Automatic annotation (TrEMBL), chain A:
Belongs to the cytochrome P450 family. Keywords: Heme, Iron, Metal-binding, Monooxygenase, Oxidoreductase. It comes from Streptomyces tardus. The keyword Metal-binding applies. One of its GO terms (molecular function) is oxidoreductase activity, acting on paired donors, with incorporation or reduction of molecular oxygen. InterPro entries: Cyt_P450, Cyt_P450_B, Cyt_P450_CS, Cyt_P450_sf. The lineage of its organism: Bacteria, Bacillati, Actinomycetota, Actinomycetes, Kitasatosporales. The keyword Metal-binding applies. This is Cytochrome P450.
TrEMBL record, chain B:
InterPro entries: 3Fe4S_ferredoxin, 4Fe4S_Fe-S-bd, Fe-S_cluster_ET. It comes from Streptomyces tardus. Keywords: 3Fe-4S, Electron transport, Iron, Iron-sulfur, Metal-binding, Transport. This is Ferredoxin. The keyword Disulfide bond does not apply. GO terms for molecular function: 3 iron, 4 sulfur cluster binding; electron transfer activity; iron ion binding. Ferredoxins are iron-sulfur proteins that transfer electrons in a wide variety of metabolic reactions. Its cofactor is [3Fe-4S] cluster. Residues 1-29 form the 4Fe-4S ferredoxin-type domain.
Amino acid sequence: MTDTVEKVATCPVAPHGWPNPLLPEYEQLPEGRPLTQVEMPSGSKAWLVAQHEQIQQLLADDRFSVEPHPTFPIRFPAPQELLDMIARDAKNLLVTMDAPRHTRIRGMALPDFTIRAAKKLGPRVQELIDVYLDRMQEQGSPVDLVQALALPLPAQVICELAGIPEAERDIFTKNAAIMVGTRHSYTMDEKLAANDELMKYFATLVTEKQDNPTDDMLGNFITRATKSEEFDHHGLTLMTKMLLLAGYEFIVNRIALGTQALLDHPEQLAALREDPEGLMPKTVDEILRYFSLVDEIIARVALADVEIDGVTIKEGEGILLLKGLADRDPQQYSSPDTFDIHRDARDHLAFGYGIHQCLGQHVARLMLELCLKSLITRYPNLHMVESSEPIELIDGLPPIHKLTVGW
Amino acid sequence: MKIHADRDRCIGAGLCALNAPTIFDQDDDGMVVLLDSSPTLDNSSDARRLAEDICPSKAIRITDG
């Protein structure tokens, strides 16, 4: 293992930040996936970690931090002003907070993200799905499933969680789609404008909910957070943005990619139709495992020297956790590149691991399960159109932004 | 086997209650509640998998006896 320490390469995950084996650099990960040291654009050192077991071990270790740090591994050359802005905002975002503050703030949101809370949303999510599928039916075969269901449904579910009134939903859905859903269709200026409009709207929403508390996920969080005096108004606005947008693109892609994977594997789809109750949870986990690759990687910085499998990660060094590759780790999963809804993939890292594991995972599961169930029940002949190039990828990489289906 | 659930370590991911609902529950604050500390052999493999591979905060521990 010691010889890998000397192999300092330029970080191969920049600039996209995607641990994607489609990128040739990934083929250079040494056999057996030992920790590999790389140099970040800033000149600081970081370690690439691609083994499932090691990633779990490191994410469960509280000697690693998500908070801003002079040598935190940032995958692009960042000007000081941007770093200052990130550091300012980081104080208000759950994803860039360490324990114990993280534990307190997460606890304020948690009661509205339990399994029971997600289950309560079920009937409303199903109603919304039925509305979109009715529209799809009226439009007639074929349709782009991303525009018809995958993009609008999660936006509406998020509006339900946030208690956003019907009349104001367009502000959210329009701008959220520009920011995350169909990213290559918009310029950076358009995305910044969408961000500004959303931040203005969220600021108003926070004030409204402080003045007239509502019983929904966001309303309850704002009530608890306001009482705690942990945030100022801008901080609450930033947290609102994080809570409402963090999982949006994730679920859009899983609905589209999951549907595509099932249509690509007709035997598995037939098995799922036979036994939807029994196989759906496994199907969802397998979709999550198989498509972990499309996500951003996880980064941390060491606050102390940490030894793992004979390698010492020194205080101040970064770690880049390639969870997408880890979810295809042959030491963890047999035939990892095969999509197989019959396998036990419950330990996938799609939602992360450790104290920052995705808060909204049960809502995400609910949406994915209900969408897939509705699609396969309602359309026994669902199939892909334009099968030679069914997925339109951005810059040759996921996420998906178009999936034409017929029935 | 005996199962232990550490509510101080728990982060409320709810994966135990999702995957082994006869052994674990999630309270209104999201935290783990142990329903059955000595499950039958049928359920024990799920408990072991949860403890070793799935629980993201390592809040589940299994001891002999």
